[in-house]
Amino acid sequence: MKSPDSSGNFKPFKDLKALLEKKAIELKSVSKSKPNKFNTSDEKKVDLRSDRIIFQEAMADVKKISKSNHAVPSQTANNHTNSKKNPSYDEHESVVQLKELIKNGTGFIVSLTPEYVEGTANNVSPEVARRLHNGYFSIQAHIDLHGLGANDAHQAFDRFLNKSVMAGKRAVLIIHGRGLSSPHEPILKTKVYKWLSAAPWHKWVIAFSSARLCDGGAGATYVLLRPKPLTKRFRKKD
């Protein structure tokens, strides 16, 4: 190491340039560092394998479900599927319902069909007939006219109503059938409405209506009776 010059300043690199030019000092070359094999960058590797191989490896541990563990679709779901796949499914269901309606009188609301009939005496609100049909009045007696001819049915009808008014019955049921076998209109059903609307029973009848399904539907009639017959003076319209 050189000593300080006469001025007292210490200059250690004063002769460095001259020494380098003479190559008196050998400089070691610095090699480039190798990249770390544990690369922590976010760069993702590209998998060059086919999708089929990757899928097979991913599904290697998956086991097939046994038939005993299969979920069974409900009947409603099957019907819904069938109706979509088969355009005639809805038509078939309609035919089945129509046959059931004709055979048993089920599957419809009586008051919304052409078979529904109701009637009220003068100055009586139609709401009374609707209430009668909807079951607001308890049925106290009934008669079944099935199998009777018109004359025998009329006599049985008269005896039944006479007995009912004498016993103070207010709401009764007359079963006459729907008359589906009649070539034109239902015979007994039409006769019953005529008898209720004519003398002598029109003085006793407040209202009548087709029955609910539970009581025979359009094949039967509810009748609401008065406790006393209506006199001629009160039968006139206001």
Extract low-pLDDT stretches: none
Query: Mean pLDDT across all residues, rounded?
Result: 76
Strand order in space, largest sheet: 1-4-5-3-2
What is the distance, rounded to the nearest whole angstrom, between the alpha carbons of the first and last residues?
145 Å
Q: Sum up the overall morphology in one term.
A: rod-shaped
Q: Report the helical percentage.
A: 25-40%
Fill in the CATH topology of the domain at 110-235.
Ribosomal Protein S8, Chain: A, domain 1
Our count of helices gives 8
Amount of beta strand? 5-15%
Rg: 51 Å
Main CATH class of the domain at 110-235: Alpha Beta
The total beta strand count reads: 5
Query: What sequence of helices (H) and strands (E) makes up the elements?
Result: HHHHEHEHEHEEH
**Which architecture name of the domain at 110-235 does CATH use?**
2-Layer Sandwich
Question: Which structural category do the helix and sheet elements fall into?
Answer: alpha+beta
Main β-sheet, in a few words?
Answer: 5 strands, mixed
In short:
The chain is α+β, with helices and mostly antiparallel strands and 238 residues long. The protein contains eight helices and five strands, in the order H-H-H-H-E-H-E-H-E-H-E-E-H. The protein has a domain at 110-235: Ribosomal Protein S8, Chain: A, domain 1 (2-Layer Sandwich).
Account of the protein in words:
The protein has 238 residues and is α+β, with helices and mostly antiparallel strands. The chain has a domain at 110-235: Ribosomal Protein S8, Chain: A, domain 1 (2-Layer Sandwich), CATH 3.30.1370.110. The protein has helices at 16-21, 51-58, 75-85, 89-104, 126-133, 150-166, 187-197, 232-235; strands spanning 118-120, 141-144, 171-175, 205-210, 220-225. Strands 1-4-5-3-2 form a five-stranded mixed beta sheet, with helices on both faces. Helix 6 (150-166) links the parallel strand 2 (141-144) and strand 3 (171-175). Helix 6 crosses helix 7. The radius of gyration is 51 Å and the shape is rod-shaped.
